[in-house]
Amino acid sequence: MAELRPEQLSGHLRKGLAPVYLLTGEEPLLVEEALAEIRAAARRDGYDEREVLHADSGFEWGRLREAAQSLSLFSARRLVELRLPDAKPGREGGSALQEYASRPPEDTVLVVVCGRLDPRQRKTAWVRALAGAGVHMHAWPVLPGQLPGWLARRLKARGLEADRDAVGLLAERAEGNLLAAAQEIEKLALICGEGRVSEAEVRDAVGDSARFVTFDLARAVAGGDVARVWRICDALREEDEEPVLTLGVLARTLRVLVELQAAHAEGGSPDAAFRRHRIRKSEQAALWQAAVRVPAGHWQRLLVEAGRVDRVIKGAARGRAWDELLQLAIDMARLAGRAAGAGSGRRT
Questions:
Q1: pLDDT tens string 210-220
Q2: Is 345 contained in some domain?
Q3: What are the helix (H) ranges across the chain?
Q4: How many domains does the chain have?
Q5: What is the CATH number of the domain that holds 123?
Q6: pTM of model > 0.70
Q7: pLDDT at 110 over 80
């Protein structure tokens, strides 16, 4: 069966349950909401018993076989949830999952819940087997440019309608955190009821829920978004993020750009560098563009500058760690922005 997106799952479930579901993705909220939808559909269809298995270290895979074969004392139908946190079942687990997928038992629905699958994991035999036996739903990241549309659809589902300014403010306040955004929409629904929501009402009701991780900064830098770089650095500093961790992500981005620039100069392909550094497909185009359109040597010079910032962080050179990190990130974003032909400037 074809891979489903989260928004397609409801339509699928209205037609009936599949024997196997594989839920994966990089947005935990969407994965958990998909699981809740399947649970609700299973209850409606008479799957009254639910068993949860956690396939962590030391898990005995025979328990999956037992769950499939044993007779229930309480219900003719049951839902079995298997949580596989790192999406690495190992040889024994992979074989057990393939065996299950080859002969799914009647009156049992299996839901395997994983986190992110990298491109290599998506091609493994156990993933193909589960997807072939039922449904694979993958929650791709909601990118910054997609967030307003996602918020508007979610508001509509709660009976709320917001204009562009109101949605934009909500996106700004909850950027990078879908769970926080969903919670704020629930708060708006409680406060405002159904109907139209203004920007002023959003401003009064919604706190600044933005929570950034250092990888958000790397994406903003590669995209040449100086304003977002400012905001993320401010948030990371306020949240007492370790400067050395932030520098590590920026330095990794610079090393990727230096490698890509060298590959371009030699007439080679960027694929090897992308694989080596495990760069997501959605991020590859911006990095390649930044590498090939920036004059030779610029990224290398910023990588040398990152070494100086490292000495500042460790107290071996003068300066303030976060000020130096911010300037490095801005310099990177401006270069990437010029490469993309986008205007950018310093915050005033």
A1: 566 677 788 88
A2: no
A3: 9-14, 28-44, 62-69, 90-102, 119-122, 125-133, 147-157, 164-173, 178-192, 199-205, 214-222, 226-238, 243-265, 271-276, 281-293, 298-313, 321-339
A4: 3
A5: 3.40.50.300
A6: no
A7: yes
